[in-house]
Design brief:
The protein is of the alpha/beta class. Helix content is 38%, strand content 21%. A 6-stranded mixed β-sheet has the order 3-2-1-4-7-13. Strands 10-9-8-11-12 form a 5-stranded mixed β-sheet, with helices on both faces. α5 crosses α13, α6 runs antiparallel to α11 and α11 crosses α12.
Length: 376
């Protein structure tokens, strides 16, 4: 058995999530998520990471400093994980660290995730795998979503056709045909989820997010606004496709608003937008059951609306498969680190559109091998 850590801070920029994953053991390839921790991103760092999403003054130096600050926060998450699991740093083979996306432009051949990996490796004494998206983009792919390969590894069933949906800042779906089926695993980003919900809620209520969707639940859907948003060409594009804050930002919401709108009804309509676009993807997947993960699972109103829109597919969470929905994305990056260390492909060309399987990520080792620098 080998241990890997995955660290994820997604488009919501809410927290760094960390998962400790044990790979191997009783059978080759067996996966077990043995610990999960999450540290909120302090408001000052979150504001800077949000500011760096768009062009600004002195952004190279600011990006470097934000990458350092994020590495320090990540090192804290690693320390928490090791303490909660009661295992030493040198029992971990490698950390897969996603970093914070500030640009995602596969159409222009690049994606940028901020994180200073050497600083993280130095602080933890553990090898770090970073820049996990660029090799797929260099091979003509979207560089995203990367989680479907992990979802297939962890959640594919012998008989049941399944889908996994991650309700993060952006939502993505993985479609998992039964094991042995000749049909490839597929998946794509469906569009916005929490990133628009959080932004609108923060602006109009001051709260970081709409707890359990209670604010949205009290409003009504503005059908004309929903219809206007649904004309967004991204929703009609055929996969492979991926998206982020580059497209779905506050300006995207505002372009379709008419004067005299009621802020709460806009929030309710944003929930419906997510439910309609993700629900459509669930129906089209032909899955019997959809297993949802990500922070959106805790938005009870969004989950109700998703269940209504996904029918006849049944909506549940990854907890039904024994995995904490909060931990799934971080666990994916732990698994991706193991693929890098083993020099195996981390992408699925059927998902990202890359020319073929690729080894993903850059690997940095903190110390010479005979000086306690992990066990690669
Ligand atoms: N109790 C809750 N009620 C409603 N929404 C929640 C709750 N807890 C978390 N969330 C939502 O989940 C988001 C974080 O989800 P996460 O999966 O971490 O996304 P990302 O991968 O983009 O960081 C928060 O920003 C918030 O919108
Ligand atoms: Mg998050």
């Amino acid at each position: 058995m080998r241990r890997f850590i995955g660290l994820m801070s997604g488009t919501s920029i809410d927290a760094v999530d960390g998962a400790l994953v044990e790979i191997g053991g009783d059978r080759p390839g067996a996966l077990r998520t043995s610990a999960f921790v999450s540290r909120p991103i302090p408001a000052s760092l979150r504001h800077e990471l949000e500011a760096l999403q768009v062009p600004g003054a002195d952004e190279l130096a600011r990006a470097a400093l934000a990458g350092n600050a994020l590495a320090d926060l990540c090192a804290g998450v690693v320390a928490d994980l090791l303490a909660s699991a009661g295992c030493p740093a040198d029992s971990v083979t490698a950390i897969g660290a996603h970093g914070q996306t500030v640009r995602h432009r596969p159409d222009l051949g690049y994606t940028i995730q901020l994180l200073q990996p050497a600083r993280l490796a130095e602080a933890c004494g553990i090898a770090v795998v970073c820049d996990l998206r660029s090799a797929d983009i260099a091979a003509g792919g979207q560089g995203a979503p990367l989680a479907p390969a992990f979802h297939a590894e962890a959640f594919r069933d012998a008989a049941e056709r399944r889908a996994v949906v991650n309700l993060g800042g952006i939502a993505n779906i993985s479609v998992l045909p039964p094991l042995g089926s000749p049909e490839p695993v597929s998946g794509y980003d469906t569009g916005p989820a929490n990133t628009l919900l959080d932004g609108w809620c923060r602006r109009h209520t001051g709260a970081d997010f709409d707890r359990d969707g209670e604010w949205a639940r009290g409003g009504t859907v503005d059908a004309a606004l929903l219809a206007a948003w649904l004309t967004e060409p991204y929703f009609a594009m055929a996969p492979p496709k991926s998206t982020g804050r580059d497209l779905f930002d506050a300006g995207w919401i505002e372009r379709s608003l008419t004067s005299g709108y009621e802020p709460r009804n806009v929030q309710t309509t944003l929930v419906e937008l997510t439910a309609v676009t993700v629900g459509r993807a669930c129906r089209e997947s032909g899955a019997e059951r959809v297993f949802v993960c990500g922070g959106g699972v805790r938005n009870g109103f969004l989950m109700e609306r998703l269940a209504a829109n996904a029918a006849p597919a049944q909506v549940t969470t990854t907890q039904a498969l024994g995995v904490d929905p909060r931990a799934v994305e971080a666990a994916a990056f732990a698994w991706l680190a193991s693929r890098r260390v083993d020099r195996k492909a981390g992408n699925l060309a059927s998902v990202t559109g890359a020319r073929g399987p690729r080894v993903l990520g850059l690997l940095g080792e903190p110390r010479p091998r005979n000086q306690g620098g992990g066990r690669l």
